[in-house]
């Protein structure tokens, strides 16, 4: 931990991470070749000072192992939060080589650092995924009375701080800005460490390494990207260990024996699903949190089952419905993601029964009319019909996510009429009015 190392080593680590981020960002942005020769990752290990460098490891593997091992093994504390912050920023820079590639992965793509991250031991992978999730849940804060300088060995001003040039001031500006907003803001839910942890996690779980033509395709651990194309022509990808770790995450509240039984096949990510559920409910207005919710609901069966048995489904559904209500401010991809989440959850009969039993005292963000004592299921119907109406009237095109919405809508409507006796009259009128308008636009 940070307390077990000397203050000088800790400062040097912060300096190294910060300076590395700056130079690597410049090199990646200005690279002229896609093989990243500018990174100078090939070194002579016989040079003086490199005798202790592992002979069986590449530079990028050695670097990623050190960074990931620290993130996964050291808890965030007031003493270690600055180094965590810099290492997460460094991770984002290291994995940004993907921005220089095309929209779809190809066998010729080279991403040395994130490829090295995929080769780490399963123990490191599980610890990193768990720690990034815990950072998102706990939302650690940078101490409001702390500073984030570029340290020097003697505790005085760093090299950049002693340089009285405009370049040095420009380089240090992000730190001053960050400290200003952190110290000036009151206690809230915003956390730079939590946001960066979530971004790093999403990048890791959604990275796909395409299998080249020279490699033999394994029988397991391969993900086929497109089911509509011929299997022989479909690109194949290596198994993503971080995605697998997230999909196999377990609730820490489960019987400990079950967790130990699953651990026989390797380390298992375990955390409180209750805390994760609450954290998602408070952060769903951020699209990265929506993507995390989609990843968990779609890939982790245990978390999906946990969500379905919760009695306070409005914690997750109300932010989703509010975003769908404000569809004009969202992109089609964002709306599509929200609808898929609802579609996945609605496949369970208990979910459909629960949303109609849960009565909302009011819906403050619904502007068309006052809605009091309305069931959550009725509100879903109104918002979904309103979403279709918006796309048909404003965009004048029925896109793919409209069909998804329509299927979900018909599914929920059938259940709504089963619960019609428990639904208030003004809500049924609202549903009927929206349906008539929607059908009118479809026929036009």
Automatic annotation (TrEMBL):
GO BP: any one term: Golgi organization
Q: Quote the InterPro entries the UniProt record gives.
A: Dymeclin (IPR019142)
Q: Which UniProt keywords apply?
A: Lipoprotein, Myristate
Q: What cellular component terms from Gene Ontology apply here?
A: Golgi apparatus
Tell me which Pfam families the record gives: Dymeclin (PF09742)
UniProt family annotation: Belongs to the dymeclin family.
This chain's protein is named: Dymeclin
């Amino acid at each position: 931990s940070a307390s077990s190392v000397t203050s000088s080593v800790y400062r040097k680590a912060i300096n190294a991470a910060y300076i590395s981020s700056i130079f690597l960002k410049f090199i990646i942005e200005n690279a002229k070749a896609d093989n990243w020769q500018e990174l100078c990752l090939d070194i002579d290990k016989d040079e003086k000072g490199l005798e202790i460098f592992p002979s069986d490891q590449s530079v990028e593997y050695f670097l990623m192992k050190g960074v990931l091992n620290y993130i996964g093994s050291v808890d965030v504390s007031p003493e270690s939060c600055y180094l965590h912050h810099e290492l997460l920023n460094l991770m984002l820079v290291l994995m940004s080589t993907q921005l220089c590639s095309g929209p779809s992965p190809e066998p010729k793509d080279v991403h040395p650092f994130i490829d090295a991250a995929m080769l780490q031991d399963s123990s490191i992978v599980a610890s990193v995924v768990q720690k990034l999730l815990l950072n998102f849940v706990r939302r650690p804060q940078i101490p409001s009375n702390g500073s984030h300088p570029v340290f020097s060995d003697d505790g005085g001003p760093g090299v950049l701080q002693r340089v009285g040039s405009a370049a040095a001031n420009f380089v240090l500006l992000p730190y001053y800005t960050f400290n200003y907003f952190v110290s000036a803001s009151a206690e809230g839910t915003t956390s730079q460490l939590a946001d960066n942890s979530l971004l790093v996690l999403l990048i890791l779980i959604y990275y796909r390494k395409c299998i080249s033509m020279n490699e033999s395709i394994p029988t397991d651990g391969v993900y086929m990207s497109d089911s509509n194309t011929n299997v022989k022509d479909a690109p194949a990808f290596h198994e993503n260990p971080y995605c697998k770790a997230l999909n196999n995450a377990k609730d820490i509240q489960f019987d400990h024996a079950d967790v130990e039984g699953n651990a026989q096949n390797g380390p298992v990510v375990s955390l409180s699903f209750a805390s994760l559920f609450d954290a998602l409910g408070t952060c769903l207005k951020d699209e990265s949190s929506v993507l995390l919710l989609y990843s968990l609901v779609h890939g982790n069966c245990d978390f999906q089952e946990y969500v379905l048995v919760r009695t306070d489904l409005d914690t997750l559904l109300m932010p989703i419905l509010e975003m769908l209500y404000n569809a004009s401010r969202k992109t089609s991809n964002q709306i599509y993601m929200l609808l898929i989440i609802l579609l996945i959850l609605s496949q369970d009969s208990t979910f459909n029964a629960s949303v109609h039993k849960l009565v909302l005292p009011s819906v403050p963000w619904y502007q068309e009319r006052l809605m009091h004592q309305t069931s959550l299921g009725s509100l879903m119907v109104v918002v979904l019909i309103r979403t279709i109406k918006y796309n048909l009237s404003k965009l004048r095109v029925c896109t793919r996510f409209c069909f998804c919405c329509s299927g979900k809508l018909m599914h929920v409507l059938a259940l709504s009429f089963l619960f019609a006796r428990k639904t208030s009259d003004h809500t049924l009128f609202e549903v009927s009015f929206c349906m008539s308008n929607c059908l009118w636009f479809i026929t036009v």
